[in-house]
Prior knowledge:
Bound molecules: adenosine-5'-diphosphate, magnesium ion
Strand content: 25-35%
Oligomer: single chain
Distance between the termini: 43 Å
Number of helices: 11
Helix content: 25-40%
Radius of gyration: 25 Å
Shape: elongated
Largest sheet: 6 strands, mixed
Amino acid sequence: xxxxxxxxxxxxxxxxxxxxxxxxxxxxxxxxxxxxxxxxxxxxxxxxxxxxxxxxxxxxxxxxxxxxxxxxxxxxxxxxxxxxxxxxxxxxxxxxxxxxxxxxxxxxxxxxxxxxxxxxxxxxxxxxxxxxxxxxxxxxxxxxxxxxxxxxxxxxxxxxxxxxxxxxxxxxxxxxxxxxxxxxxxxxxxxxxxxxxxxxxxxxxxxxxxxxxxxxxxxxxxxxxxxxxxxxxxxxxxxxxxxxxxxxxxxxxxxxxxxxxxxxxxxxxxxxxxxxxxxxxxxxxxxxxxxxxxxxxxxxxxxxxxxxxxxxxxxxxxxxxxxxxxxxxxxxxxxxxxxxxxxxxxxxxxxxxxxxxxxxxxxxxxxxxxxxxxxx
Length: 376
Ligand code: ADP
Ligand code: MG
């Protein structure tokens, strides 16, 4: 959808909100056949070194992000997520490699000329300006006439269901309402790609889940490409069409949340995603989901057989709908500092049918198809 279409939709929205969904769907439909596999963003050998000769913060990454998709960059603190996003935004120079936006090389363009916009956290709103003036601000900087910029800002506030609060200052709005103003402020530059760096991390847990659902809904409704940085695997799983897992400046795995959760490529991804056990076997490491393991009584540390492992119960945690059983390999339990090596999630019913106590010897077993190899 080009800027002209966007403009048409937005003007139309002022008096005819109902048509928006249909119009957006129509525009997307029109675009779909002409660009069947166009990437909104393509990173080619993208590298960032903050100092010459230093270890790269981002190390020659290659990535294609499908147009109109929700992409989450996920990984532990310091792995290079923000650096990657800032390079795409044009807020950080690129050491090597290229950034393409819809096949246009934007690597060296200034931030404002790229077709990207960064949605800053809600606390970055100007406290002394009304919601309306906050949203209109970047158009004011561009020299757009007052009536025109206020009309555009008002229409965007309507779109994020904030039209009735346009005159309020950020301090007079709830956290969720401020977040919507921040979204409208980012959208006013008509970006093709919206960039979000940990946008929910300052919100309390309840609001975070509510705003997460809103972001997802706005992204689908607007049909824009979102690139959202987070260190929370739960947040990424809830939001992403495509998850890109990073570690030490490189991409370790990318795919749908389902693919990554069910087929973590290596031990790092399995542990970072959680919900998996990493088990050493004579032929290498395997991953097995915590809810795909059964426990049965075992007499001693005898041979467990294939697709099984003898273990000692080190911990039993009641979690409501399920019970989490912590386990260790026999012999390891006596260490005072030991923490559970594996965990098994049992339904409350399964646990009550065969209760376990700390110190019990059990046999962990799983179906052959529940295990998969982890590369190093
Ligand atoms: P993330 O967002 O995944 O937590 P960052 O992209 O912020 O990670 O940082 C990646 C690496 O680059 C880290 O080691 C960090 O210390 C370093 N880094 C980030 N910004 C700068 C900077 N402005 N100058 C020097 N080093 C930086
Ligand atoms: Mg960061």
